[in-house]
Amino acid sequence: MREGSCLCGAVTFTVEGEIAGVSVCHCGQCRKQSGHVWASGWAKDEAVTISGDVRWFDAVGTAKRGFCPTCGSFLFWVAHDEDTISFAMGALDGATGLSLGKHIFVRDKGDYYDITDGLPQRAQ
Length: 124
Known about the structure:
The protein is 6% helix and 38% strand. It is mainly β. The chain has one domain (2-108): Metal Binding Protein, Guanine Nucleotide Exchange Factor, Chain A, CATH 2.170.150. The strands form two sheets. The chain has a seven-stranded mixed β-sheet with strand order 6-7-8-9-4-3-10. The chain has a three-stranded antiparallel β-sheet with strand order 1-2-5, with no helix packed on it. The chain starts with a strand and ends in a 20-residue tail after the last strand.
């Protein structure tokens, strides 16, 4: 089991079992909400337990983003038609033992940085 929280600790979460899809998203929405890129992993809904008041923002009509209303930490991303939840890798406590697997939405990446780690890149 892995545990995580927002910056102020008002929202906490646990992930039981496997964490999949560790990636970095370069889409415009993730860059705007996080201030740069958003590294996340995902798990099945039933594997993630969230405690505290999460504010949900439906940015595109197909997915919602969850954040702490107190400190503003961007913690979760949930597609309306999937049974998984993505969560911020940076919000996990301690060492994770995980590694990034890919970059997504690189077509939308900022022009102020390069991706040079050799990981697979998806345009979308």
